[in-house]
Write a structure and sequence with these properties.
single chain, 447 residues, alpha+beta, Cyclophilin, 8 helices, elongated
Length: 447
């Protein structure tokens, strides 16, 4: 689905790493696919809802609390800052909206949750394709600018629970409006007719509401005449006031000189000043000196006619909290240099660890290859031994068969030799038997 079909809203984060500006991340929000989720994220970006649940409903000042290289960066915990808090603009949590969208490319904006229908304010930005999250987390936007900032956060050193060692803070955030929309609204406002005949340039330069023009339309000529007439009257009044003021000042100076002269004459006639008058005058002088050098609340004496009276009540507006936060981030040159040295030292340690890790991986790979070669040699040796043993067994079985065949052949030869002997022995037996019978006959005859 093309981006213009998914949504047309934009939001941004201004990121700082250890108090140093790192850049801006701009998001394209898919409000056509996930309107509730996008509205929740947009409201937290603008902070338009103010305070909710005892915390300001804004991502400003929150941190990225979890960073996993090759996977994602996670933030949005506006209450605790460690991944255990947060809430939504609809309540504690709200339901999953569109789980059909896939995590099929990097730098997608998705909602973090603790299970089905537990979306709050936490979110994460993927750095790789993560299909195992499909159907579990709602994708509602993507990064369209500031990929290098996401990579910089992803490559930070992390500690326990994948928390980055450096503080990654959202210093400013909000919604972006396209220029075409602003120009269109301005043109529409300019094309609207004015409700009255009074122009902005004809309004009087006074704050008194009762001295303003009436809203009835008048001709341009009459307005100019009235304007010139008022200016002439104002000039005449100013000149007369200046003249009367000079007269009053001159009369007051002459009267003060006359009073001083009469006082001096009386003092000359009396020859001395009474004790009570001296005491009153000294008391007035002391009180005047006290008023002139009255200390303020912080103990600083201010010279003048009296104490400062404009420090009593605070009538001005208070300093905005984000100004105070920015003011607290000011660093001295020594602190900045120390921070830079610590950063360089961490970078060196990280580079050293990477080097050691690469060496260890190379060593392990070499050992693995050697073990594999050794196993291959042992396997070949065992196969050679089995083949040799098989050959020896074959030779022994052949020898046994040959011996058996030779033995059977010799037995056959012996049996063949015994048969003629038996044949030759049988006539001898017959002849011996006949001779014995004849001898027995002869013996009987002789008897």
């Amino acid at each position: 689905m093309p981006p213009e079909v998914r949504g047309n809203k934009r939001a941004f984060f201004d990121i700082s790493i250890n108090g140093e500006p790192a850049g801006r991340i701009v998001f394209s929000l898919w409000n056509h696919c996930c309107p509730r989720t996008v509205e929740n994220f947009r409201a937290f970006c603008t902070g338009e809802l103010g305070k909710m649940n005892g915390h300001y409903a804004s991502y400003q000042g929150s941190v990225f609390h979890r960073v996993i290289k090759g996977f994602m960066i996670q933030g949005g915990d506006i209450t605790h800052g460690n991944g255990t808090g947060g809430y939504s603009i609809y309540g504690r949590t709200f339901d999953d909206e569109n789980l059909a969208l896939k995590h099929k490319k990097p730098y997608l904006l998705s909602m973090a949750n603790r299970g089905p229908d537990t979306n709050g304010s936490q979110f994460f930005i993927t750095s790789e394709e993560v299909p195992h999250l499909d159907g579990k987390h709602c994708v509602f936007g993507e990064v369209i600018k500031g990929v290098e900032v996401v990579k910089a956060i992803e490559n930070l050193e992390t500690g326990n629970e994948d928390k980055p060692v450096c503080k990654v803070e959202i210093t400013h955030c909000g919604e972006m409006v396209r220029k075409g929309d602003v120009v269109g609204n301005a043109g529409a406002a300019a094309s609207e007719p004015e409700p009255t005949g009074v122009k902005m340039e004809d309004e009087p330069k006074t704050r008194n509401w009762l001295m303003r023009y009436s809203k009835s339309p008048e001709s341009r000529e009459e307005k100019k005449k009235d304007k010139h007439g008022r200016e002439e009257k104002r000039d005449r009044r100013r000149r007369s006031n200046d003249r009367h003021g000079r007269d009053r000042r001159s009369r007051s100076r002459s009267q003060s000189r006359d009073r001083n002269r009469r006082r001096d004459d009386r003092s000359g006639r009396d020859g001395r000043v009474g004790r009570n008058e001296r005491d009153d005058r000294s008391g007035r002088d002391e009180r005047r000196d006290d008023r002139r050098s009255a200390p303020t609340k912080d103990g600083i004496k201010v010279r003048g006619r009296g104490k400062l009276t404009f420090l009593g009540g605070r009538t001005r507006s208070t300093t905005p909290p984000h100004w105070k936060r920015e003011e607290s981030k000011k660093l001295t040159l020594e602190a900045h240099q120390k921070r830079q040295e610590e950063l360089e030292e961490r970078q060196k340690r990280a580079a050293q660890r990477e080097k050691e890790e690469a060496e260890r991986n190379a060593r392990l790979e070499k050992e693995r290859v050697e073990r594999q070669n050794q196993r291959e040699l042992e396997r070949q040796k065992q196969e050679a031994e089995r083949e040799l043993k098989r050959q020896q067994e074959n030779e022994e079985s052949g020898n046994r068969r040959r011996r058996r065949s030779s033995r059977s052949g010799s037995e056959n030869d012996e049996s063949e030799l015994e048969e003629p002997k038996n044949r030759s022995a049988s006539p001898r037996k017959r002849s011996s038997s006949s001779s014995s019978s004849s001898s027995s006959g002869h013996s009987s005859d002789s008897d």
